[in-house]
Amino acid sequence: MNLSKDGKKRADIRYGLDVGVVLKEDQPTGYITYGKVQKVLTNSPTHPHGIKVRLNTGEVGRVKEIL
After folding, report:
1. Is the distance from CB of 37 to CB of 17 less than 8 angstroms?
2. Are 66 and 13 spatial neighbours (Cβ–Cβ below 8 Å)?
3. Is residue 17 within 8 Å of 7, Cβ to Cβ?
4. How confident is the model at residue 21 (pLDDT cuts 50, 70, 90)?
5. Segment 37-58, tens digit of pLDDT
């Protein structure tokens, strides 16, 4: 499987995956929060800013890297 590590393709992101996301409040700074995917929130197959997910902590952000 050819995984893109930038988090822009929904097909690359699955439940339980370790990811780095930028939370809405961290968008100006680009600070990355790490966690496990609890739920994929973006419905479209791709997104230019990263697929939106909910982490197991309940935080919501766009995936910037897949670990």
Report:
1. yes
2. yes
3. no
4. very high
5. 999 999 999 999 999 999 999 9
DSSP assignment of 1-67 equals: ----TTS-BGGG--TT-EEEEEEGGGTTTT--EEEEEEEE---SSB-TT--EEEETTS-EEEEEEE-
Structural domains present in the chain: 10-66 (2.30.30)
pTM for the whole structure = 0.88
Task: Please state, in angstroms and as integers, the Cα–Cα distance from residue 16 to each residue in 7, 28, 58, following that order.
Answer: 14, 27, 13
